[in-house]
# Entry
Amino acid sequence: MEIENLIDMGSAPPLIILLVLVLPAAFIDLKSNRIPNILTFPGMLAALFYFSAANGLDGFFFSLKGIGLGIGLLLIPYMMGGMGAGDAKLMGVVGGFLGAKGVLAAFLFTAVIGGIHALCILLVYRKKFAGHLKDLLNRWSFFISTKTYLLEPEDNQSQRPRLCYGLAIALGTALYMSLSAYGYHIF
# Structure
């Protein structure tokens, strides 16, 4: 089961539900730098319930694999402090509705949009990032030589501008869904 099949079968409700979840998450992330669990956990449960009810055990595993891959794609960046847990959970919601193949494709669009967003932030706030970049390179070289990762001090994290990855997830997901609806497939 893939997004193309959902669209072809006239099963737009799960795709509409997905957009209803990711778009507000993006706005909340822009406003408060967090994505609330009130959107992510019910979203994952809704995906599991919908696909289980529609397709039985196959639907359940379709959704479960998507959730696992979605969270897994952003787990390492989260563990390294590069993004929040809400971003990983939101990608899990996307995976729950799009399945493993769909979340991987949506993630690729998300990564490109997130990279463009990050470059814009770097250009706008380049003076603030000068010291942070040097510190990051020092921490990475320390990690490579000792295999011990040093966390960034809390005061450094609060001073730098934040990348709201929820926006990139929403835009990447919407772009993937739009292209798939018009017959453009990545995988």
